């Protein structure tokens, strides 16, 4: 039998085998978004092999109808089945372990306190990012999608999966309609030395170059800015086609959180709008990135709060195009 869950005012309900329920926005869903995401990923791997459901069934020793239900997100497969499917498709071992972990996580009783998914055991963010058409974020560090290999290695250490982490950067270029990425970078990112001065110089030059791409927008929030509210912890608002948008909070005392109620998403969109009022414009940001990179190359680390601006930072009443409205 599947896990049981209760709804306030309705008493207990029993889920069909292979299903879990999650409280989301005040209602109950027969299977959570994570199950659909797992199914999407497994279907993508099958299609990459150009296999039919029937051939996948023969190779994995799992019925075609079962694979079809898994891909549709109608059931949450046991981790053994996920491993068998991945092995049949020749999926990279690191990716296989991530998908196995995801299957285990989905089958656990979800934490419903925040009206979303809460947990630190598995990082679902890369899979949400891969399905997204736009990610709008506020960050204290360089986002994974824009990191150089040396910056990523210095930041994460000798951990497995660095190659997979960097491979995700293809989302910004490989698709006919690449991911649109808009990031407000806290000035602390410029001063928090990750690795060496050379690593920082290389990374900042890359950011300046990447920001010239039409689907990438970067703006720095300087220490001298006086936003109406203190800057929050790092977060991202993720827009996925045919799915409700979600807000993803990175780290913190409670671990990573996914919040997908309308109230929560609206709150974080408003936070972005508030922060962008005092952020530097795109051209000033590029100039700061290049100048700061040059400082690191010369061994002259920048001083917090002393950015070398070509022009004064925009006033709070200046009208910048909203960071989420990026031309394709």
From TrEMBL:
Residues 42-96 form the HTH cro/C1-type domain. InterPro entries: Cro/C1-type_HTH (IPR001387), DUF5753 (IPR043917), Lambda_DNA-bd_dom_sf (IPR010982). It comes from Nocardia panacis. Residues 293-303 have a biased composition (Basic and acidic residues). This is XRE family transcriptional regulator. It comes from the Bacteria. GO terms for molecular function: DNA binding. Residues 293-328 are annotated as: Disordered.
